[in-house]
Write a structure and sequence with these properties.
10 helices, single chain, two-stranded antiparallel sheet, globular, mainly alpha
């Protein structure tokens, strides 16, 4: 077992810890770890991310359900359009994108680069959501849930397409949407988000199984197992550490990583 593989598998636990602590951020860590440390092709990395984040989120969702922190009506309302969007994106849109999108001089803007650039943009957008104080997080703790169905359905579809393209679970988009659109308490939003992420990520991964790519199940199962262990640790830590402080710290980390990936893909590869 080489050093990079050991580091990558150790970092896999951080994926689960992130999901357990703040209900998001799993795929933001998974894809860079797979691509830059474990040397997985970016297109395959987004597929692997769907499986890893999906299984880990499912375990975390069950844990939250046992604590009555999941609203299954919202899982259906938000989840159905999101699941359809991610499945169709992985099964039809990803294969439709050409391997080389355009060429400028000696630089080729490939499918792999485009996915990583899009992922970096998503990371930067996610960091803003995480760094920005959550003004309404505690506002709706005792208010009856109200559903803005058109907005929730639209948000679900958008997050589904995004998940399909870059392998991001979208918790950083789902949680604010549930807090603002359904007036959901933060803890309930986190638990509900994990179930939504699990459903659409795993079904999106099924869309990839229709392709001809060979999946490294040994790497995938090992990474997933450590991530699942991490989410138990994350759920435990969430009871000990203020989630708002962790979310802000993680947001700055994600911002730095997003800028790094953007610069590396657009400029470092071009030289």
């Amino acid at each position: 077992m080489n050093f990079a593989l050991i580091i990558g598998l150790v970092l896999a636990a951080l994926v689960g810890i992130s999901l357990g602590l703040i209900g998001s951020g799993g795929s933001i860590l998974t894809v860079p770890i797979l691509v830059y440390i474990l040397d997985v092709d970016p297109v395959m990395a987004t597929a692997y991310s769907l499986f890893i984040v999906g299984v880990t989120s499912l375990v975390g969702g069950v844990q939250n359900a046992l604590q009555k922190n999941v609203d299954f009506k919202t899982v259906l309302i938000f989840g159905i359009p999101s699941i359809l969007a991610v499945y169709l994106t992985r099964a039809y849109l990803i294969p439709f994108i050409p391997d080389v999108i355009f060429t400028v001089g000696n630089f080729q803007f490939t499918k792999s680069i485009s996915l990583m650039v899009l992922f970096a943009v998503v990371m930067i957008a996610a960091s803003v959501s995480m760094i920005k104080p959550c003004i309404n997080c505690d506002k709706y703790e005792k208010i009856e849930l109200k559903y803005n169905y058109p907005l929730i359905l639209l948000e679900g579809s958008i997050v589904g397409v995004l998940t399909g393209l870059v392998g991001a679970g979208g918790g950083f988009l789902i949680i604010p949407a549930l807090v603002l659109l359904a007036r959901m308490p933060m803890k309930l939003a986190v638990g509900t988000s994990l179930f939504i992420i699990a459903a659409k990520s795993l079904l999106g991964f099924i869309g990839d199984l229709q392709g001809t790519e060979t999946i490294d199940w040994t790497l995938l199962s090992g990474f997933t197992a450590l991530s699942v262990i991490g989410i138990f640790f994350g759920i435990f830590l969430s009871k000990k550490i203020a989630g708002t402080k962790l979310k802000t710290f993680f947001g700055w980390f994600v911002l730095i990583m997003g800028v790094y990936i953007l610069v590396k893909e657009l400029f470092y590869r071009a030289v």
